[in-house]
Amino acid sequence: MNQNHAKKTNSKQIVISGDNAGQRIDNFLIRYLGKIPKSRVYQMLRKGEVRINSGRIKQTYKLEEGDILRVPPIYQDDSGLTIPSRALQQKITDSIIFEDEGMIIINKPAGIVVHSGSGQTHGVIEAFRAMGGIYEKLELVHRLDKDTSGCLMLAKNIPVLRQLHLAMNNGAITKSYCALIAGRMSGKEITVNTALRKDTVSSGERMVTTDENGKEAVTIFMRDRVFPSATLVKIKLITGRTHQIRVHSASIEHPVIGDLKYGDRLINQEYKKLGLRRMFLHARTLKFTSPVNQQKVTIEAPLEQDLVQFLEKLTDKKR
Length: 319
Prior knowledge:
The protein is α+β, with helices and mostly antiparallel strands. It is built from eight helices and 18 strands.
């Protein structure tokens, strides 16, 4: 590595979320550290520089939710790195809808990833860290898919992050979404209680399928407005599995409109012609008790304007 372009980073503590649980530590570090040579990753593991819950581990160790991972100081070659644009930083700053001493909640715009990886150079977390100051040490509490908009929570320090992870695991944080799903939902409410299994295909892409041997997943769909060939629904998540809403809605033959992975191609094309340019899925509200002052908090993220206008178009078309 060219030392002229190398920058030494500080050691870092990471609290492992459910999304990363089950991964081997070596594979996680290779993805997390990006340009660091694999040989250096394995050297850190052999020498015990990487610690889990203050202890040494082998390269075959599988991460568990709640693990505290210590990544040692390392040299990173920043010669080819780019800084998130001012426009992206400003867009993320403008999306803040709640902030206190322990956390920030944004109304994440669709089309922006939460962190870099999978071909994406910059995401929400990189944009915040580029701003420096109080934003430099932010950590994601949970994730949203690139094309999902809405409430995204970030913690300002590790103690708050751990408390929020614990609250999520105990069901003390309530998430609700809204989505436009294909077809007319006949009943007022549908509860889907179907286990899900997460797989990674050869390209590295994550795919989730219904599987009785998978992890428990429960989603409640509540009818809001009915259109000739679609239904606007409110959604309550009882569990928080990867791609849960998208897979569960597809499993009851009401896929989320605009979903390119689990949706219906012909339906997506039809609605694209009508002007829908993205997946219609939005994280609407978060309800929780603040770890800072123990006050009950309810945060609502307004629908993005493009979705509001599309619903108005569907309403006019219905008349």
